[in-house]
Amino acid sequence: MPALADDTALVIIDVQTDFCPGGALAVADGDAVVPILNRLSALFGTVVLTQDWHPAGHASFASGHPGAAPFSMTAMPYGPQVLWPDHCVQGTPGAAFHPDLDVTRAQMIVRKGFRPDIDSYSAFFENDRATATGLAGYLADRGIRHVVLGGLATDFCVRYSALDGRAVGLAVTLVEDACRAIDLDGSRDAAMAEMRGAGVAIATADALVG
């Protein structure tokens, strides 16, 4: 199967407690991706996890902007920014991977959003679109030419990771049933259309496993 070849990596995006039901920025049904990703991770020789890792008082938190409501927009030096509830604060239980996620197969964890003044959705670049996380170089060194993505959330961190994966020259497959969306004002459908337009392949876990 091409999706499971040696030059293919599974990248699991932000499957953390705060993004799952009961968390500070819960994605509806977010924990449903865990068994699917566990099943997939056993099939890949290269597995990468990303982890939102914000310092307290991060600039993207609505709590730091007097009068601003969560999910409102603000202008940052790097462009428009959604203001989020405080989430995935370094060292807190909410920043931990979901307890049922099998992390034993992962060779690398990419922590992102740790710079206080720049949010980071993508596994490849922070939101200034210039600061690299180092993932592209790691994958190149491993001979990876194709990434398979799943995790949270479809319309933000997964979307930006998929688009940036294409931008750095990788083939990208999104495992649709291994993702869940926040879906702000139709953002899921817009994200899916944008990813398809960029050449991201859409598949199901069963299709990959065969």
UniProtKB/TrEMBL annotation:
GO MF entries: metal ion binding; nicotinamidase activity
Keywords per UniProt: Hydrolase, Metal-binding, Pyridine nucleotide biosynthesis
Stored Pfam families: Isochorismatase (PF00857)
E.C. designation(s): 3.5.1.19
Domain Isochorismatase-like: start-end pairs: 8-206
Record GO biological process: pyridine nucleotide biosynthetic process
Pathway listed: Cofactor biosynthesis; nicotinate biosynthesis; nicotinate from nicotinamide: step 1/1
Enzyme's top EC category: hydrolase
Family of this protein: Belongs to the isochorismatase family.
Name the UniProt record assigns to this protein: Nicotinamidase
